[in-house]
Amino acid sequence: GMSVADPELQATLSTRVIKSPQGKIHIALASLLLLLCLLGVTTPSSAEYFALIPFNTAIGKFRVWNLLTSAYYDNSILMGGVNTAVVFIVGRMLERKWKLEFVKFMAAVNFATMLTIFIIMVACYATTADMKFLLSPVCGFSAANAAFGVALKQLAPNQNCVASFDKIKFKHLPAIVIACAVVCYGVGVTQFKDLLLVVFGTYYGWLYLRYLMLYPGNTIRGDSNEDFAFKTLWPGPLRPIGAMFGNITFGCCEMCGFCKVVDGPVVEELPRTAAPSTSIPIPEVPDTVSEAERKQSERRRALAVKAINERIEQLKRAQKAKAAEASKPADATSAVESSATKSKDATD
Fold this sequence. Notes:
Blueprint: H1 7-12, H2 25-42, H3 47-50, H4 54-59, H5 66-69, H6 77-98, H7 101-128, H8 132-135, H9 142-155, E1 160-162, E2 165-169, H10 173-186, H11 192-212, H12 239-256, H13 260-263, H14 276-279, H15 291-347
Helix pairs in contact: 2-6, 6-9, 7-9, 7-11, 9-10, 9-11, 10-11
C-alpha cells in the first residue's frame, strides 16, 4: 500500500514549490472549462450539443459524444467558476505527483459518472414515463473535483486544508464536499444533478484509486492500504454503511478481475544489497476489517513471508559460494608452501 502521508505532495503545497509548476495540463484544462462555461452561459442552445440530455444522447439524435463532453461543459457561472478554480489549484498538485495518470484518473471518473447518471435517468423515465428525465441537461466538472478531494485524502490525509487551522484536514474533504453538496441542494443553490455528480464522483474517484490506478514507480494497480478503505471517507456514525458499500465494491471488482492486488504478486523484488527484513513489509490483519479484506491481507502476508524466505535462502547460497571461492586461493597457497617445504627438506 501507499504511505499514510505523502511528503512530496505536502511539499508541493508550499508556495515556494508551486510557483513554477512543471506541468501545464491543469492550465489547459482550467482554460477549457472556463471557455465552455462562458459558451454555456452566453449561448444556452449549445447545451443541445455539449450537455448530457438522454433523449439527444442515445434515443432521438444519438449524440453519444455527450457522455464525454458534458463533464467539461457548464451552463452555470457559479459552478463553472468554482470548478475552474478547483482545477487550477488542486490540479497542479495532482499533475505534479501523477503526470499523465492525472488525466486518466480525471477522464475515467467523469465518464463513469456521466454514464451512471444517464442509466439512472433512463431507468427513471422507464418507471415513471415522465419526459423530464429524458430532456433535463446534465453537465459540469463537479464529479472530477469531488474525486480530487478523495485523491488529496489518500496522498496527504493529515495535511491542513488551511495552514492556520488544524481542525480540518485533507482526510475530511470527501465528507465535507458531499455535505456541502447536500446543503446547497437543500437550500436551492444547486440542482439535484449537481448532488449526483458529487456523490458518484466521490465513489468512482475512490474506486479508481483503490483498484485501477497505476501509481508512478509501481507495477501493481491500486492501493490496498487499510487507511484508504471506503469507510474511511465517512464520519464515524456512517462508517458501517461505508464499510458495507466497500465490501460490495470489493466483491464486484474481484469477480470482474479488477482486484489485481489479490491474485498477482504484491511483493516487489528485493534489492541485492538490501536486508530481507526491511525490504518487504508484511501486512497486518486488523480486527475490524471485513472477511473478504481479511482473506486478501492473509494472502498478501503469505506471499510476503514466502518472498522473504526465498530471499534469505538466496543470500545464504550466495554467501556460501563466495566463501568457497575465497577458500580456493588459500588452499592453492597452502599447497605451494607445503611443496616448497618438502623440497627444502629433501635438499637438506
